UniProtKB/TrEMBL annotation:
Pfam families: Aminotran_3
Coiled coil: none
Entry EC no(s): 2.6.1.11, 2.6.1.81
GO molecular function terms listed in the Swiss-Prot or TrEMBL record: identical protein binding; N2-acetyl-L-ornithine:2-oxoglutarate 5-aminotransferase activity; pyridoxal phosphate binding; succinylornithine transaminase activity
Native species: mine drainage metagenome
NCBIfam families linked to this entry: argD, PRK01278.1
Name recorded for this polypeptide: Succinylornithine transaminase/acetylornithine aminotransferase
Required co-factors: pyridoxal 5'-phosphate
CDD domains: OAT_like (cd00610)
Keyword Membrane: no
Lineage of the species this protein comes from: unclassified sequences, metagenomes, ecological metagenomes
Amino acid sequence: MIPTVMPTYARADLAFERGEGAYLYATDGRRFLDFAAGVAVNALGHCHPHMVAALKAQADKLWHCSNLYRVPGQEKVSRRLVDNSFADTVFFCNSGAEAMEGVIKTCRKYHYETGNPQRTRILTAIDAFHGRTLATIAAGGQAKHLKGFAPMVEGFDRVVYGDIAALKAAITPDTAAILIEPIQGEGGIRPASLDYLRAARALADEAGILLAMDEVQSGMGRTGKLFAHQWAGIAPDVMGTAKGLGGGFPVGAILATEKAAVGMVAGTHGSTFGGNPLAMAVADAVLDVMLAEGFMEHVQAMSARLWAGLEDVARRHPGVFSELRGAGLMLGLKCVPPAAEVGAKLRDNGLLTVGAGDNVVRILPPLVVGPAEIDEALSILHRSCGELAA
């Protein structure tokens, strides 16, 4: 008999009742160090007091009022995002997949409005992941996500990730945009080189097409800057983000330049719940913390500490881990045994991680993580590797 909760997840037999900072507490009383962070969602950890206060205060005022009216919270949060990014305008939604659907629509509508309606195809990367909707699984193109959902949405051409020559060769008169994850998350924590991102920007300009970024996972401080592409000193034309933007509350956003958003006018796109007052109160609180002086420097310092520690883990346990990848606090360890087996052992020892493609275990601590929690995680990793080897 099918469960009342549709069985679309391979769930661990574990349930949590509360969280605090970098820790989760299970219903059976066990404490876990959370280095999965809700798959890079709980950027400020669990129950951050500033977020909790903002949500409670807004809950006493207004939850939902529809996008038929002005929403002051949207105006405030969009201004803060615009002031701290390449964008001129922002659309709010509820998830990363919705954000990326909107990115795809924005790219196509731009060319329709500017006299090139044949430009509908988007270049994506092999092993990319852009969401679970019909269009975004087609954009990612991974067989395991597409199986059983034919016919596939048309309009995507895939090239090898990081190969600028292949990217250049794939541009045709029908190409509308290049879509890149600065760091492939589900694909195995594979960062693009900064030179690749710069070259993609130059190629898009040369071809008269848009450069789109998927920063659903890599954005919102995860690499030590608000958005990962900022390390390359370039700007996309349109970008989707989510996850850390709400710190655990469902918030997604499409950020775009005025040029790219030329066709996104009344009636072209919408969301019933997107950008409601509750979501905006929380996103504003997240930005209060992330944009505060010293926050990104803290992320960078903790990133360096964690990277050095994970390098040591991989060096001392080559029979368990063969490679360390990633940037900032978006890191991955390529496993020798099955990644699921490694993740289960870490969980048994009190450390939560999350799997990724290419047999990788993702390490995604909250951005507020401190030295003590990093050292605790490294201790669990060393112990778990010894147990796996034995």
